[in-house]
Target: Beta-ketoacyl-[acyl-carrier-protein] synthase III
Amino acid sequence: MTGLITPPSGAAHARISGIGAYRPRRVVPNSELVEAIDSSDEWIQERSGIKTRHFAGDGESVIDMSEFATRDALAMAGIEAGEVDAVILATVTHPYQTPAAAPALADRMGMGKPAAFDISAACAGYCHGISLASDMVRGGSARNVAVVGVERLSDFTSRTDRGTAFIFGDGAGAAIVTASDTAGIGPTVWGSEGDKWDVIAQNESWIDVHEQKLDWPTIGMQGQRVFRWAVWSMAPVAQRALEVAGVTVDQLDAFIPHQANVRIIDAMCKQLKMPDHVAVARDIVDSANTSAASVPLATERMLREGAAPRGGLALQIGFGAGLSYAAQVITLP
Ligand SMILES: CC(C)(COP(=O)(O)OP(=O)(O)OC[C@H]1O[C@@H](n2cnc3c(N)ncnc32)[C@H](O)[C@@H]1OP(=O)(O)O)[C@@H](O)C(=O)NCCC(=O)NCCS
Model:
């Protein structure tokens, strides 16, 4: 005899109710990096917009950074750690193949025994996490979800690679996704282009590093290919995220793209015909590219500095290694 399974049932809608950020104390200006790559502060600022980045301190792990960001996000949401049912942690720089960082973060924060797992979608990881969390809240598998984007990229960056040494930084951002009476997270437009997996990639596999006694692996990037892909392919993805949310660009208060390069951000704004009244995140200038942490770090900053209003509408998009991408319209917490 076949029984009937009770279908899952969750909240009508989901929203982001809190956001938090952690920027490591050590600020590294371009001048500290230029000698090893025969570059200059002017060149780096002109080509990328970056002036400084933060590097994590000795022994400051992705779990440590996540804890600070998540505590702030919970405080803004007005939710206790014990009320979190699930933790989604997006990173590509947790230095253990297994276990994931999320269960240790949950335990450290006294969350009890929530579902806790990591996702690997590089610079698109946080926006993937927001999509999953929204579906979980609406599907009934969690009431409150902590979504963390965190990176310690300084561990995986070659100080002598001219194409990446100045690009990456460290940090953590976190959001709490909760039930809502109205839709606070629009449908996600996401995808991947695995035929371009080599465009941004760890340069050697762990197996080759071990068996061939190679140097510590770092993340390599074909800068011009990334640049062209981001400029030409990501604006249409952002446009589709607006359309599926039923929102026009004029209705936005903020545009929060992945902080990859100021020139990419400017080119996307031009293609999207972003009106002047829309605040555009440019956290990259001080924080560089923090991969999975870049969108929540930029969001926290815009709210803290008053550049975007609480409760306003924001378009966010993450894109990077995979190649993979995800975009959605959100209501700012
Ligand atoms: C990395 C990036 C800034 C490099 O800029 P670029 O204009 O593509 O640079 P190129 O590699 O074509 O090199 C152009 C010139 O600058 C020089 N150059 C390259 N890197 C340099 C550096 N760090 N400092 C000084 N000069 C540099 C090159 O030697 C070349 O000189 P030449 O014209 O005399 O031959 C750019 O490709 C970029 O921003 N890509 C996207 C990166 C990104 O967003 N990554 C994250 C995605 S998630």
About this structure: The domain at 189-331 is CATH 3.40.47.10 (Peroxisomal Thiolase; Chain A, domain 1). The CA atoms of residues 256 and 316 lie 5 Å apart. The longest strand covers residues 170-180.
